[in-house]
From TrEMBL:
HAMAP family: RapZ_like. InterPro entries: P-loop_NTPase, RapZ-like, RapZ-like_N, RapZ_C. This is GlmZ(SRNA)-inactivating NTPase. Residues 1-158 form the RapZ-like N-terminal domain. Pfam families: PapZ_C, RapZ-like_N. ATP binds at G8, M9, S10, G11, A12, G13, K14, S15. Keywords: ATP-binding, GTP-binding, Nucleotide-binding. Residues 166-284 form the RapZ C-terminal domain. Signal peptide: none annotated. It comes from the Bacteria. GO terms for molecular function: ATP binding; GTP binding. GTP binds at D60, I61, R62, N63. The lineage of its organism: Bacteria, Bacillati, Bacillota, Clostridia, Lachnospirales. It comes from Roseburia hominis (strain DSM 16839 / JCM 17582 / NCIMB 14029 / A2-183).
């Protein structure tokens, strides 16, 4: 039997993940009382229950004080040689607060207090589960389809998963540095295609801009050195337990040089094992929208 405990922060996407696990063939039970977990595992392990050979159980803060009992329950399950894995969904506090405000829901621990107080308390109570987790997915920057892709990697493709998800983000300095950046690189040292006749309206997704940027040896050197540094940093971030890494590359408007180099970096890092990867161009269309 393949048995997964799905847990994590309220608002991090557990309900969505449960539905996705059903779609990939898991029998799913959400918010199962802790007192019933051991018995449920025993019933699922019986040979005649062939349809219960892949099971996912959602357990979270809604169990209240009973959540503390899960340590002993899991210890007994392990003694019975039932293998289980823990998937923990997380998100940054600011993202969780925003999601609660958008849905106009109260946090289960906030009571009459502010949402952030409930989130703080929930982190304390779930800390032991996060420390024991086999997989941690930070959904702060993930779209629904990207979360599905990560679950497929783990539970369908059985890929080795190291819990780190990397976002390569191009941006324009004139619109501000992205607040969630971990690493910021400024490529305004390169000549700007904006001032070249016929190139202003194009973007770093167009071959003409890419050819213009990479005609300069400095662009190749920058990319080589950046890749070399990331090849050093990423394994250390994984070892340290980091779940989310945002690499921001900026130029003046976020349309030409930054987009070109972000795309090139994405190509170089694609296919690497041990982390998820996506690319975003935050400001690529802003000049067009403003009529510039």
């Amino acid at each position: 039997m393949k048995f997964v405990i799905l847990t994590g922060m309220s608002g991090a996407g557990k309900s969505t993940a449960i539905k996705m696990m059903e779609d990939i063939g898991y029998y799913c039970v959400d918010n199962l009382p802790i007192a019933l977990l051991e018995k449920f595992v025993e019933l699922s392990s019986l040979q005649e229950n062939a349809e219960l050979q892949k099971v996912a159980v959602g357990i979270d803060i809604r169990n209240g004080q009973a959540l503390e009992e899960i340590r002993d329950v899991l210890a007994r399950i392990k003694k019975k040689k039932v293998h289980y894995e823990i998937l923990f969904l997380d998100a940054e506090d600011s993202v969780l607060v925003k999601r609660y405000k958008e849905t106009r829901r109260n946090h289960p621990l906030s009571g009459g207090d502010r949402v952030d107080k409930g989130i703080e308390e929930e982190r304390k109570r779930l800390a032991f589960l996060k420390e024991s987790a086999d997989y941690i997915i930070d959904t702060s920057q993930l779209l629904t389809r990207e979360l599905k892709a990560e679950l497929d990697k783990i539970f369908v493709q059985n890929q080795d998963y190291k819990n780190l998800f990397i976002t390569i983000l191009s941006f324009g300095f004139k619109y501000g540095i992205p607040a969630d950046s971990d690493l910021v690189f400024d490529v305004r040292f390169l000549p700007n295609p904006y001032y070249v006749e016929g190139l202003r309206a194009k973007t770093g997704n167009d071959k003409e801009i890419q050819d213009y940027v990479f005609q300069y040896e400095e662009a190749h050197t920058f990319l080589d050195k950046l890749e070399d540094m990331l090849n050093f940093l990423i394994p250390n971030y994984i070892a340290e337990g980091k779940n989310q890494l945002v690499i921001s590359i900026g130029c003046t408007g976020g349309k030409h040089r930054s987009v070109t180099l972000a795309n090139a970096l994405y190509e170089r890092l694609s296919g690497q094992k041990g982390y998820g990867l996506k690319i975003e161009h935050r400001d690529i269309g802003k000049d067009a929208l403003r009529g510039k």
